[in-house]
Design a protein that fits this description.
By secondary structure, this protein is of the alpha+beta class. 30% of the residues lie in helices and 37% in strands. The protein has helices at 2-16, 57-69, 123-127, 133-141; strands at 19-29, 32-38, 44-45, 48-50, 79-88, 91-101, 115-122. A hairpin with a 2-residue loop joins strand 5 and strand 6.
């Protein structure tokens, strides 16, 4: 169902061309970054997703971490918001990326439906993967 929903969503975006807002979290541990694979995209990304009505980017990031990888954090643990607005065939997309440094890699719980796998990679390894433009820009500016 996720691939079908993603296809319908992308079709809608190409017609309506909305300005969407998302929040992602770059979790770093021992010089490696957590990337996730979704069931509906070919590229790997950071955990996160859309900002819901009435929610701040920071609140959305906290919620999405719990939903996508089973990780519960406090909003104050998220550091250094970095933001980019991209124009694509589906309209404008503003993405806020928070940094979460962790001493010990947390136990993750991916749902196997939306998120199908998680990987810890060095910056160089991550940049060698297929990534969304905003994640690539974030990694290149670090």
């Amino acid at each position: 169902l996720y691939p079908l929903a993603a296809l319908l969503y992308e079709g809608w975006r190409r017609l309506v061309r909305p300005h969407t807002h998302g929040a992602l979290v770059a979790i770093w541990s021992e010089g490696e970054l957590l990337l996730v694979e979704t069931s509906y995209r070919r590229s790997w990304s950071l955990p996160g997703g859309g900002i819901e009505r009435g929610e701040t980017a920071r609140q959305a990031a906290v919620r999405e971490l719990t939903e996508e990888v089973g990780l519960r954090v406090r909003a104050v643990q998220l550091l250094d918001p970095w933001q980019i607005t991209e124009r694509g065939p589906g309209g404008l997309n503003t993405v806020t990326i928070f940094t979460l440094p962790v001493q010990t890699r947390p136990a993750l719980k991916v749902d196997g439906l939306e998120i199908v796998a998680s990987h810890w990679l060095s910056r160089e390894q991550a940049l060698a993967r297929e990534l969304p433009g905003h994640v690539r820009c974030y990694l290149n500016q670090e």
